[in-house]
């Protein structure tokens, strides 16, 4: 066994970023311990009359051909097909808390015994504006869109921003954490959502997915009194910074589970450059994250497996020939550790290709549950690579969630927490 090369790396985008992080694990653990018991819904869905710019379209189901819907009261079905002038297909159906199966029939929706000859419908309910899709409760409305092939459809939750956040925060952070940490998390999540909606929404039928690819969204099951308090006490608050045009505006307020001691510059991970995302020291997460998450154990992966993953994802790498070496091409160095920012793949053709370390890590381990961050040393074991000296969980950009909890334990306010992790940012408030 010989040590041929040593790498150091770190991780990708926000919590699915962060959901691959410790807080999510803690949360999922709570769900399991709780036997999936549904929380009592005590809060009416607020802001149902909010301006459309403050609604969020969350992709719940992608390319499905059936689902079950349950609504304990009357609901309305509206023709939302932009290519049809009439809304004449709107109707009312009353269900006695029975499940209704939604499926496609000859390219049209079939539910509750009726066929709806349109490619998009919106299902809405009365107060408290809650419906159940495949057994999970969500607030707001449900939009269904038939795909181009006519054989499948997407299910999208239309929901005002504030109740959306109530469905996110309990999934991204344990609700028993310090109230100031929860409030900082809400403000970051609100800012991130609005930024993503504005940047990508016009190109898609939805704004965000329900997974860690954006922010984990569990709907009503994420809610609790503590979560709603954090949402209400920060209502409308977002983070802004000075943009390239000199104006103050929102920015992608990324966050991740455990930075390992220093957050990373967004330029090195996502390729964008906003002043508040430059990376800052974080002495706060070490005492909050579990030791096995702060220092994660060695991961050993066969070289053939890594080669296949890289070839499948990157055609440019498959053209290099047999992979001969993987080496560090860039790293951020901190006081007692480093985070890989770029890696270089050398092929038998003699040519090289360069990748972001975060993309490299998540190509090999898409869940991020094994190679938890790009803070590691890569050791050549002959037939396999060992990822050792692992540290932190998540991409490390923006707020460190465990660090936010650490600061809140030291009596820091949400504003102080956000000022630390997003230096130069300001808090503005949306007027709904
Ligand atoms: Zn940290």
Notable traits:
432 residues, alpha+beta, seven-stranded mixed β-sheet, 11 helices, 24 strands, globular, disordered N terminus, binds zinc ion
- Structural class determined from secondary elements: alpha+beta
Q: In whole angstroms, how far apart are the ends?
A: 63 Å
Q: Give a quick account of the main beta sheet: strands, pairing sense, barrel closure.
A: 7 strands, mixed
Q: Indicate the overall shape.
A: globular
Question: What share of residues is helical?
Answer: 10-25%
Instruction: Say what oligomer this is.
Output: single chain
Bound ligands, named by name, code or SMILES: zinc ion
The residue ranges in which pLDDT falls below 50 over 5 or more consecutive positions are 1-39
The fraction of residues assigned to DSSP E strands is 25-35%
Rg computed from alpha carbons, rounded to a whole number of angstroms: 23 Å
- Supply the number of helical segments: 11
- Main-sheet strand order equals 4-3-8-11-12-1-13
Average pLDDT taken over every residue = 88
How many β strands by DSSP? Answer: 24
Can you give a write-up of this model?
The protein is α+β, with helices and mostly antiparallel strands. The protein has a domain at 66-79 and 99-151. It is built from eleven helices and 24 strands. Strands 4-3-8-11-12-1-13 form a seven-stranded mixed beta sheet. Strand 18 and strand 19 form a beta hairpin. Helix 2 (161-172) packs across helix 3 (179-200) and helix 3 (179-200) crosses helix 4 (225-233). The longest helix is centred in the middle third of the chain and has 22 residues, at 179-200. Residues 1-39 have low confidence and may be disordered. Zinc ion binds at residues 258-259, 282, 284-285, 400, 402-403.
């Amino acid at each position: 066994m010989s040590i041929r090369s040593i790498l150091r790396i770190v991780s990708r985008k926000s919590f699915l970023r962060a959901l691959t992080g410790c807080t999510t694990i803690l949360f999922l653990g709570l769900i399991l311990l709780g036997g999936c018991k549904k929380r009592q819904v005590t809060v009416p869905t607020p802001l149902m009359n909010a301006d459309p710019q403050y609604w969020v379209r969350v992709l719940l189901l992608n390319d499905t051909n059936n689902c079950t819907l349950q609504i304990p009261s009357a609901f309305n079905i509206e023709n939302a097909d932009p290519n049809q002038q009439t809304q004449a297909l709107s109707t009312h159906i009353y269900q006695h808390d029975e499940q209704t199966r939604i499926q496609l029939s000859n390219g049209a929706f079939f539910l509750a015994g009726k066929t709806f000859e349109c490619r998009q419908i919106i299902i809405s309910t009365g107060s408290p504006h809650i419906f159940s899709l495949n057994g999970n409760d969500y607030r707001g409305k449900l939009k269904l869109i038939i795909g181009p092939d006519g054989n499948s459809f997407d299910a999208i939750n239309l929901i005002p921003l504030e109740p959306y956040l109530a469905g996110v925060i309990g999934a991204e952070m344990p609700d028993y954490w310090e109230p100031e940490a929860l409030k900082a998390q809400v403000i970051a999540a609100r800012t991130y959502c609005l930024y993503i909606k504005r940047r990508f929404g016009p190109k898609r039928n939805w704004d965000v997915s329900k997974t860690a690819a954006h922010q984990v969204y569990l709907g009503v099951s994420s809610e609790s009194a503590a979560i709603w308090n954090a949402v209400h006490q920060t209502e409308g608050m977002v983070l802004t910074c000075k943009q390239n045009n000199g104006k103050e505006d929102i920015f992608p307020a990324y966050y991740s589970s455990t930075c390992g001691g220093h957050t990373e510059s967004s330029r090195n991970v996502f390729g964008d450059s906003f002043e508040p995302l430059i990376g800052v020291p974080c002495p706060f997460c070490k005492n909050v994250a579990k030791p096995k998450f702060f220092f994660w154990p060695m991961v050993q992966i066969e070289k053939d497996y890594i080669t296949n993953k890289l070839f499948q994802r990157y055609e440019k790498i498959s053209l290099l020939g047999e992979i001969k070496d993987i080496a560090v091409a860039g790293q951020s160095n901190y006081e007692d550790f480093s985070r890989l920012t770029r890696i270089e793949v050398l092929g038998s053709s003699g040519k090289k290709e360069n990748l972001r370390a975060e993309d490299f890590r998540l190509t090999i381990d898409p869940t991020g549950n094994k190679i938890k961050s790009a803070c590691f040393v890569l050791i050549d074991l002959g037939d396999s690579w060992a990822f050792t000296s692992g540290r932190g969980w998540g991409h490390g950009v923006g707020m460190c969630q465990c660090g936010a909890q650490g600061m809140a334990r030291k009596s820091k306010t949400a504003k102080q927490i956000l000022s630390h992790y997003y230096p130069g940012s300001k808090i503005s408030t949306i007027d709904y």
